[in-house]
Every structure is written in structure tokens, then in C-alpha cells.
Amino acid sequence: MAGNDAPLYRLAFNLLAVLLIIPPLMLMYSLHGSWLWQWNGIAAWLANGLALLALLGFVWSLRYYDGQEFLGLRQWRIGIKTVEDQERFQISPLHRFVRHPWYSLALVLIWTRDMNAAFLVTAVAFTLYFILGSWLEERKLIQYHGEIYRRYRERVPCLIPLPWRYLSRKQVCELLGD
Q: Would you say the C-alpha torsion 8, 12, 13, 14 has a positive or negative sign?
């Protein structure tokens, strides 16, 4: 996208994403069937606790994003003619453990719910979307941020935190050259 349409790219993308997620969510909640699994007892407490932590993690992580740029409002308001990110590469606390924390938190929310067939199909579809989306986003980030993102990518897992693969605060400063 270039020229006069470029400032609307991110905003249009986000609006389209919201519109396209509505039909599968409506189907998921309108189709009733027998439960494939339901969390009960301590498992329900654990599943709901993890879901609550994921929601809190998402809200907490908002402070590390430029909401105006993420939504596309800044690009539209200023009339930025490129689709590239306008910010320099940075690593939030959650980015020390996974490269795509919002996707990871969303996966926790999805897979801690009770599942019937409709929920399961939707959960699998969303999971595949996050895997594909992270792959596509990685290609873009390598193009925009180059070698620094490649080095970051070598050290931090994509979606699932691994206890032996993360960046300490000192390593973040070294990577960013701060």
C-alpha cells in the first residue's frame, strides 16, 4: 500500500480483523453441543486463575505499546505514507520471555475454557492463526529491524515460554545497546 492509502493501512487492517472475528465467535457461542471437557474442582480454579493472569498480563502489557500507532490512529492522523513501524525496536518485560506475548496470553485464555466441539474448532483455528500470524509478523520485523531482531529471535521463544530461553534485563540492555 502506498500513496494516499498508506496512512489508513493499519487502521483498516485492525477494523477488518475485528469484523472478521465476529462471525466465528457468534458461531462458537450459538452452537451448543455436549462438552468435550469441562474444568471442575481444582482444575477449574487453576484454569480460571491462569485465564485471569493472562487478562491481567494483557492489561499490564498495554503500557509498553504505543496504542495510537498499534491501532493505526497516529499514522492516519499524521498522514504517514509508509506501513513500517515508526518505533525503534524495544523489548518489554513480557518480550523477554516470548516474542509474541499477546498471542501467548490469548492462547492461555483460549485453552483454559471449557470445550465443546464448536469451541474446540474455534480454538484450533485461532491457534493456527496465531502461529501463522507470528510467522508473518516475524518476517516483517526482520525486514524492519534487521540483525537486532535476528539476534533477539535466536534467544527468545516465539509463543511458549521456555524456562531456559529468556533474556535477563542485562542481556536486554546489551542487545539494545543501552
A: positive
**Which amino acid is located at 34 in the chain?**
S
Q: How far apart are CA 100 and CA 55, in angstroms?
A: 15
Q: For residue range 79-120, list pLDDT tens digits in order.
A: 666 655 556 788 999 999 999 999 999 999 999 999 999 999
Tens-place pLDDT, residues 112-127: 999 999 999 999 999 9
Q: Are 11 and 71 in contact (CB under 8 A)?
A: yes
Whole-structure pTM value: 0.84
In terms of Cα–Cα distance, which of 160, 15, 162, 17 is closest to 101? 160
Count of C-beta atoms within a 10 Å radius of residue 96? 19
CA pair distance 132, 138, nearest whole angstrom: 10
* Residue 167, SS3 per DSSP: coil
Write the DSSP string, 56-125: HHHHHHGGGS-HHHHHTHHHHHHT----S--SPP---TGGGT-S-HHHHHHHHHHHTS-EEHHHHHHHHH
Residue among 166, 173, 16 nearest 98 (CA): 166
Domain spans of the chain, in order of start: 3-82+89-176
DSSP H or E stretch at residue 135: helix 117-145
